[in-house]
Design goal:
The longest helix is centred in the middle third of the chain and has 67 residues. The chain is of the alpha+beta class. It is built from 13 helices and eight strands. The chain is elongated, with a radius of gyration of 43 Å. It has a four-stranded antiparallel sheet with strand order 2-5-7-8, with no helix packed on it. Strands 1-6 form a two-stranded parallel sheet. A two-stranded antiparallel ribbon has the order 3-4. Helices cover 63% and strands 12% of the residues.
Length: 490
């Protein structure tokens, strides 16, 4: 499986003649996220049975468990829903209302007429006049005790000065921002993961040298104490030897603390709990540093500032978001009405629809078409302020983009300077180590022949260990700077 160090080997031949953009890398990360984020429900994976993790396995755990990536994934899902909601504004809105009312005392009573009153109001021939009966004739039975109401309402935007279409465009742009943020966070975490693994690799080496140096210091204390008893050394010399041994204990403790801190940060990145020094199957390829140092520095800066880099792409998308927001604000100013069509179909009657008698004759159904408009005439200047705010936001984004590019240039310059200094110090330390090793051989021969002092031999061996530790520290600093440069470059 390719590691972060291996990736640079494939990129270096392309540097001399062309710019290498980050889109391909971002696409690979995005694909990996899609394959691995399905397991994102896990909160952490415990290490059991002395399991060892390679860099690629830790990468997979990071994609599955890292809380920052989980949050980014949820933000992308929310942005997708925002896009769907914005598109839904193009479709009609259909509402339904229904109601049932029971009238205890209906407002319209039955209408009845006395039959005798009708008879008496007419002119009758003699002998043909009907006799009085006292009966009543019901003309209207009155309002029934039940009342049903049903209504469908459809509202369809007709013309909104582009607010709906620009709203869809705006949310799509925000979605692209979220995707770029997730790609950037993935690359950041990926870089941090291997940076910390390489730091552990060097710290383990430093700890081993310190342990070796501690043995020499312990032996030096013993020899000094024996020499003091024999009257060959002063008590001050013995005390200095003990102090030197104690300083080594403190240095070893500091290195172990750095190891623990790096392991803890790796646990946070990957979500893998209970890691230890034996949990990693990783060896740093130091040729990665040489390959990064061979990169053309101008090409690195050009590629780091390329518009396809996620850090630059995010600001570019935000600038587009502000452009779209300005269009929406200008479409919402005064005397720019929105037009919409409203269609209402309803029924209101004492019987359930289609079950009432003579429903065609009663004509209880309604169907209405309405074309309406709505606009803001004046609101104290709020609409104009929103336009000004959108324009100001765009200018702020442009300033941030220029500032980000300046920071990238500064970071690259700083890291290149650090690399140059570390390379010089590494060469210097190699010369010092060569010198001390030559001195150790001489003192070893003199001691074995009986002409030399074991104290001087031990002191030279301790000094050699110190030079080796300093060499490893400079290599660690150089590797960290190379990781940062490659992160900005790729």
């Amino acid at each position: 499986m390719k590691t972060f160090s291996d990736e640079v080997a494939g990129e270096i031949p392309q540097v001399a003649g062309e710019q290498v953009v980050g889109e391909q890398v971002a696409g690979e990360y995005e694909k990996a996220i899609g394959e691995n984020m399905q397991a994102a429900g896990k909160n952490g994976v415990a290490v059991g049975g002395g399991a060892k993790y390679s860099f690629s396995e830790l990468q997979k755990m990071m994609l599955q468990n890292n809380p920052t990536l989980k949050q980014c994934e949820q933000e992308i899902k929310q942005s997708l829903l925002d896009v769907k909601n914005a598109k839904a504004n193009l479709s009609p809105t259909i509402d339904f209302q229904a109601g049932f009312t029971y009238l205890v005392n209906p407002p319209i009573a039955p209408v009845k007429v006395n039959v005798d009153d009708i008879i008496n109001s007419l002119q009758w021939q003699e002998g043909f006049r009907p006799t009085s009966t006292g009966q009543y004739l019901t003309l209207y039975e009155g309002l029934e005790d039940t009342l049903y109401t049903i209504q469908f309402t459809l509202q369809q935007p007709v013309f909104t000065w582009g607010k709906i279409t620009n709203g869809i465009k705006l949310y799509n742009q925000i979605l692209e921002v979220k995707k770029s943020q997730m790609n950037l966070e993935t690359k950041k975490l990926n870089t941090e993961l291997e940076t910390r693994l390489s730091a552990l690799w060097y710290l383990y080496k430093i700890a081993k040298v310190l342990e070796e140096e501690n043995k020499y210091a312990g032996r030096l204390v013993k020899v000094s104490e024996d020499a003091q008893k024999a009257g060959l050394l002063l008590a001050q010399d013995v005390l200095e030897a003990r102090i030197q041994a104690k300083e080594l204990d403190i240095a070893l403790q500091d290195v172990n603390e750095q190891i623990k801190n790096n392991i803890f940060e790796i646990e946070k990145i990957t979500g893998v709990m209970d890691l230890s020094q034996d949990s990693f199957d990783y060896e740093f390829d130091e040729s990665f540093v040489d390959k990064v140092l061979l990169l053309d520095r101008d090409a690195v800066e050009i590629n780091a500032l390329n518009e396809e880099q996620d850090s630059i792409k995010i600001l570019s998308h935000l600038s587009k978001v502000n452009d779209t927001a300005i269009k929406i604000s200008k479409a919402s100013v005064y005397w720019k009405p929105d037009f919409a069509l409203s269609v209402t179909a309803g029924y209101g009657g004492s019987r359930f629809p289609l079950l009432e008698e003579n429903y065609l004759r009663k004509d209880d159904y309604t169907l209405n078409f309405t074309l309406g408009l709505k606009t803001c005439v004046w609101d104290g200047g709020k609409k104009l302020n929103e336009v000004s705010r959108s324009i100001s936001s765009k200018q702020v984004t442009q300033i941030k983009e220029e500032d980000a590019k300046a920071n990238i240039r500064k970071t690259l310059q700083t890291q290149w300077n650090t690399c140059d200094v570390c390379v010089l110090k590494i060469d210097y330390q190699k010369l010092k180590i060569e010198t001390t090793q030559s001195k150790i051989l001489q003192e070893q021969r003199a001691f074995e022949s009986g002409y030399g002092s074991e104290t001087e031999l031990l002191t030279s061996q301790i000094k050699n260990c110190n030079e080796q530790i300093e060499l490893l520290r400079q290599k660690l600093n150089l590797a960290s700077s190379c990781f940062m440069i490659y992160f900005l470059y790729k």
